[in-house]
């Protein structure tokens, strides 16, 4: 069943609460299909927790979770062990922007949400590692350039040049020579 088809259909709790056919004692304790549906939403102050979740939480949260799964698939979270995608942040941003009280307001990014700003002020996050921020193409360029540099440095002529430069630095004391040179230039 596709994800969209599952979202558009109402939640039938009797499927989750049904007991095996042979166990009639348990079946009598669980709610049946006749008691599950409600013609109108129950009062928020007098309804049971299950009714509140079914009528007020799930209709809002389930589309957000479906959108979260689509976004996680786009970010290739199911293919990799580590990604830069933080599902909790996405869900907070989605729920904040889909809030009916904010329907006339423009889209707000996660780090611009007021309560998120306040929380991150007191609890800063560590930076995301560069390995997670780079795209696959950028990461391959970094790896290839490092490998090419390594192969060039392994060349015998380049090794000889590096040894000569090292000896020159040690014998001539280049840093002292540069300090004297700049002291003379400043004295002029």
TrEMBL record:
A Pfam family recorded for this sequence: IQ
PANTHER family per the UniProt record, alphabetical: IQ DOMAIN-CONTAINING PROTEIN K
The protein's name in its UniProt record: IQCK protein
Species in which this protein is naturally found: Ceuthmochares aereus
